[in-house]
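Service request form, structural biology core

Requester: graduate student, group of Dr. S.
Request type: structure prediction, single chain
Budget code: on file
Notes: please return the result as structure tokens.

Sequence provided:
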Amino acid sequence: MRKAFLMETIIKGVLAKSTLQDNDKSKFIAQLLKRTAGLDKADAAVLLDLALELKLSGRSLLENQTADRIFLAVSIAHRDVFWAKFHSGWLEAITSATTTYHDFIRNIPLIIAVVKRKQAIALTDDEKQEIERNMEFLQQFGETRCITANEPLEYAIQCLLIFMYTSLPDTRPLAMASYIEFLVEHLAIMPIPASSSPGCASLMAKSAINLLEQCWSNGRLSFRPDNVFITIPQLFLRLSDDQRECSLGVGYLLQAVPDVHTSVVDPFVQNLDAAVLWRLEFTVQRLINWLVTTDMAGIGVWIVAIMDSLASRGEFALLRKLADGNAYKIARQLAFRSRRNDAFLVLKFLLIGYHHSPILFHNISKDLVPLLVSCRKSPDDRDFATDVCNLAQTLVIHFGDSDDVGTRVQKARMFLDLPAVTRAEALQTMQDYSWKRGLQIQGTTAGSKRKPAFVQPLGKVGLVNLGNSCFMNSALRALFCSSDLRQAVLIDTIAADPKKIMTLRLRDTFIGLSTSRLSIFTPLMLYKALPEWLNDGHQQDAAEFTQILFSRMEDEDPASKRALSSFHGAIINQIKCSVCGTVSSNKEDFYHLTIPLPRSESADIQDVVGIFPSIEDLSDENSNKYFCDECGVLQNAKRFTMLGSLPQNLILSLNRFEFDVKRSQRMKISTPIVLREMIHIKVQDSHETQAYQLYAVVIHTGESAHHGHYYTYARDDDTLAAGTQGLDPASSTTWLLYNDTSITVSSFDAMQQKLANSRTDTPYMLFFRRTDTAPIQQKSNADLSKMTVSNL
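Core staff response, request fulfilled:
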């Protein structure tokens, strides 16, 4: 009898022996498999057949473990046999045969075990390449057959897929939105008892959350931090479904999302159709129920974020309903150390916002005083007591001291030697936490009815006009189309910091524009972060907004210079005295380049940018003689202006507005411009020119410099990428017209035609990206300082 058949008989006999404990069986089989090295190839193949039989039978955990032991023993002792048995053809055959529920349950664990062993023993380049093909094959299998399929997946199959994605990371899908939706859905239907604590969550819940965290971490090239913006709407939509139960797994997922990402809640709520806002009541109520029944730390900040956004939409009746039904039971959680921080956040929001009546406060005040008195054990207790006492004092000052509530609060305060709240401090707190504080913005009501959501072309997202904020929207759209800036801002992991508010708000806006599930986005927080003179509800300048945005970002965080580096260039100004020949030179850095516009019937953009390098006479005739330090008097001179270095992304601002001395006001220069998709610019002393491709145009419409409207034409990102790789830029290029919330498909020719037919619609800011069609060598700062007019 061959050795393999003998070993097979012994293993089957041991597994069937009812008088032996599983632990004893396992130890005996492990000892027996140590003899695998002494088998020939045929016997090793027989053992692999036994392992397949045990793995596919699914009769017991011990049989499954035995199969894994055989795979391990044979793969180490006879790796060539293992590799020949489980070649790529075997993998393709077994996945093709996996069609039914039972097929998945039986085959997926086997596939995972085999591929993991192949991965562990792969040595040669051919074997490693086969592993890569196996991973790609399983990736496509999971994506097409499961993740993006229209049919819902059984929970057990979901678990197997998560096991595969955890065990074999390279098999994870590339269809990120569908993948995230799958993971959120799995957590939402996961059977976790209501009494569970986060530490008792199932291994599969932890695995699913870990996979989502990896999506947010930018750990792989296909993953980006703004995937959290895809996750949270999915999570809230699941929480708001009143027709289905929602597992605590969603709560544990919410715990895992960093607090900084509560900033995505407001854009999500603001862009919901008013007809479905009532569903958020179920979302908040479910979260409150978890707060008062489980130790789910960190959930309070999310409850407040949703309710705060509802307040900005004017949903006060819904908030009062939530307050009436939940304030008392939330207050009772203040007695539990593990829940009190979250409970206090929510309670403070409800009580201060519910300022029209003292009923809620009086109903819970009798429980607050004993709670205060008990907080004497540790510094943490004292800090918590201070917060609760300050809240109670504030509400007493607001509502008045009825039923001796104020007297009891003051006695507790003095007993614990806590600080007193002044009337001015109480008033400020009431204003800061008022539900109505974010309702109005320059005549625009955040809580007013909005148009129903609709689908924008190519999954783009429109920007809501907050009242003459088109200057901001048009520039933001062009900046968002600047891929270098967009990527740098989106992958920035900057933490919430009041000193970096502009950078944070720009990132939030870019995240909103990246979320194709939203048809429109409200850039309210970015608008509020602007200087008051720029967000006062009057029409402002799009180029000036861009200047201030870049300047604020630089001032807030020096690291922002990296995000802005693609726009950085330099101008060299040199003046040569006509008498002594002395040359003075200075360098001016720029992020966007303002160039003069001729007063004429029309001008070609190539001619407009052709002013560099330029020469200007400084003389009596021009009333601008130059004071020469060497000569010590005013002398005739020549000023040379040239481009010292060119940026990757070039913003050209056409000087359309000038001050008219006679009229004492700014006037618009309405000279029409003939645009070109490609322009060429000369740098300093180079005889070559650098090619630039147009990708966005901010247009001002109107006859006056003081009012009008801004909108933007921009190339679609995909066709832009293709254009920069040497393709004809005019071939089948898609352009889009962005006019606040309105987005329409257009073309370069259609834009040209529109501008040609209108004297009031004029290009103002032009955005170009450098191409590689005519490269020139950029000069260092040291090189720039050595340039002289003789180079011209």
